[in-house]
Structure formats: C-alpha cells, structure tokens
Amino acid sequence: MLPRSNLLRRLRALRSVHGEGAENEKIALLRALERTHLPRAGDVLDLHEVLCFWRAYPDGPALLATVERLLSRFAARRDLRRFRASLTDTGIAGTSLHFSFFAPTASWLARRFPRSLRIDWPALGDGDRVERLLPLLALYAETPGLDEVDLGLPGWLRRLKGPDETDASFLVRRLDALRAKPAVPRERINVHSDSSGDCD
Length: 200
Hints:
mainly alpha, 3 strands
C-alpha cells in the first residue's frame, strides 16, 4: 500500500482521468483512504472535493457506489472531527456553515433541518427589531406573558420554540406563518450541515 501522502497525491492526479483501469484504481485508492487519517485540514477538503467530483462524473456504478458510501460516512471521519473548526464554511457534512440566508432558503432549511439552524447572536446585535415582532410570533394565549415577564429575546425564543426545533427554526417558521412578504428581514442564522446534505 502507498504511504498516505502518496495515496492522496495519486487521488488528485486521477481526478479527471477516465479510461481503462481508472475506475478500479480509483476504488482501490478510496478504500485505502477510507481507513486513513489525513494529517491536514486541506487534505480532508481535497478528499471531499474529489469525492463530490466523482459523484457527479463517476466512471461507472462501482465507483459511484464507493463514493456515495464514503460521503454518507464522511461526517464521522476522525480527521474531519479533528479539523472541524478549520473546515467551517466549506459545506462539508459535519461542519458549520455561517451565512445570511434569504427568506426562501431559510424557510427550506427550517423545514428540512429544524434542529440544525442557529441564530448568529453576535451578528444580530441587541435584537430589538425581532423582539418587537414577538407579539406577532407568539400564540395569542402566550402574549400576556410577554407583557408580564422580561426574559429577553433569547429567553423568550427558548421558551416559545418546540422541543424538536432551534430558536432560529422557530423564528423562521413563525415568520412564514405570518405570510409576510420576503422583504420582512430574516436575521442572520448559522446552519450546521448534515451528513445527508453532501453534494446534493
């Protein structure tokens, strides 16, 4: 078996190579790299990029099956967990993605990944604009409490949200229920990618 640095170098070299024997060599390399802990965040990113490329352009069904298996388990890789912070905003499963989403995308994410959205509280600032909307976002029976108790915006969102959603998912879902125009601001949120979201 090649040393791990040579495995990755050979993988990069084969990225756009097709033809006789290429598929079998790619599969053998991927099987070896599946059990190999990569030493740098950039190496993990390179492996992921090649996997996504071969998922889009596989040599055949055997390579596609191997690629999809590795992608489905990518978030569990020990080297990915080790370099998780360095791989922020790469879009790799198991890493964090920080982005100010437009309303339609935020709504889609809240429906599909209700436990993965987070409000970026530092970017939100004092949250006065959102806090003024709380009476519209709460159920009518909950509104007297808003007048009686000052939990602050984070406290009220924690109290009002359901057990299977985050503060951000609750906020997006309730704004959707208002049937407001997309121009109503959806404050900055973070989404942590899920292993099922790779290369979709």
